[in-house]
Write a structure and sequence with these properties.
Helix content: 25-40%
Strand content: 5-15%
Distance between the termini: 54 Å
Order of helices and strands: EHHEEHEHEHHHEHEHEHEHEHEEH
Shape: elongated
Number of helices: 13
Oligomer: single chain
Structural class: alpha/beta
Number of strands: 12
Amino acid sequence: MHPTPTPIPTPPPALRPRALFAMGRRHRDTLFTPAAVERLTTYVDIDPDHVVEDFAREPALDDVEILITSWGCPVLDETVLARLPSLKAVVHAAGSVKHHVTQACWDRGILVSSAPAANAVPVAEYTVAAILFANKRVLEIGGLYREHRAPLDWSRRFPGFGNYRRTVGVVGASLVGRKVIELLRPYDLDLLLADPYVSTLRAAAMGVRLVEPDELVEASDVVSLHAPELPETRHLMDARRLGLMRDGATLINTARGSLVDTDALTAEAATGRIHAVIDVTEPEVLPAASPLYTLPNVLLTPHIAGSLGGELHRITSSALDEIERYCAGEPFAHAVHHAALATSA
């Protein structure tokens, strides 16, 4: 008989830092299940039912040391921070912090963590599935099979289709872009990368060949976008660059809608010359009359590549790990650095 291990007692609230949820209520309910809350309360003193959506309506917040944020968090500007004199850390249970972490946070030296690495996993998985299906012409063949309900000469209709020795161009070595490259390594594909911040040596270590964007677009059977939303990346895929794509090539966008000129893509796709798998658009929801909804060579999905359903629990786990590190006096594993925000999502 093995002795029953003695449970580790939970420290009293006075010895745990005070924490507060700041996010949309529905996101709190989705991300922090009862099991997650149980784990959270072993690290911090928190009222799990108290969720801040508007700091102006909150009473005294003098003792709050950690803000646990997610989608829907109010902006943390100077006025809000003045009401949070003890705030030392923001742990963001989502991706980008640009929407709520302001210069005032950095000026005060507040530590910031985020979970883009956790959210990158499902986006990369979606992208890899789209790449493999695109080269195999799965959606088109499935549509024809549904229409004819009889065997056809697929090789004649789609000469050269398949994934062997096809060229995939990845635009942007972001967290998602790097994960896509990692997941594609087992396949017999030729991988190209365009990223102004990556050296030739680093690209070679990643198993890709570094090229300029135009060369990538011209040489690739699939062009997959993973660049951040910045002024210089707006309409990265404009009419000119879309025109450089090979006949029958596929454009995949799981990054930001602004990277693609929607009007130019609509015009190019309407010719049937190229294909597209588009998960993000500009505007976020296209007008109901947009041809992109119905073109047979376009797969349009409603921004579902990122974490959904059970995948959200990976984000929660990442945030809880960061809170545990903070409470143990350890540095964040996924710290956000102010200087890096200029070239990241």
